Amino acid sequence: MTSTAVTSRELPHPARDEIRLEGVLHALSDPLRLQIVRELAADGGELSCSRFDLPVTKSTTTHHFRVLRECGVIRQAYRGTAKMNGLREGDLDDLFPGLLDSLLAAAARQAARIAADG
């Protein structure tokens, strides 16, 4: 029997076949959400929400993670009291081959260009 405390902490995620390109592109169109995805990709594992140093309020940070989760870009799960985040790289690569790698490479080039100009 599953306790209600466990089930109430489970977060809804779209099934792989429910992930849509326009949703993924929308999620990644925001610079802060793209930063989150870049950090997750660089780490290659799961990171807690508190690991991200975003220049916005906690409620806005929560919103950005929710958009990424609801569009199928990340998977979130509670581990104790921490909400852990992992990139759904396998699902995204199977559905949209090369998209994530291309977007991450383009974001890295843009970040380098901005750093060089600044």
From TrEMBL:
SMART domains: HTH_ARSR (SM00418)
Pfam families: HTH_5
InterPro entries per the UniProt record, alphabetical: ArsR-like_HTH, HTH_ArsR_DNA-bd_dom, HTH_MetalResp_TranReg, WH-like_DNA-bd_sf, WH_DNA-bd_sf
Molecular function, one GO term: DNA binding
UniProt superkingdom: Bacteria
Annotated keywords: DNA-binding, Transcription, Transcription regulation
HTH arsR-type domain sequence ranges: 13-107
Chain ranges passing through the membrane: none
SUPFAM superfamilies: Winged helix' DNA-binding domain
Name this polypeptide is given: Transcriptional regulator
Species: Streptomyces shenzhenensis
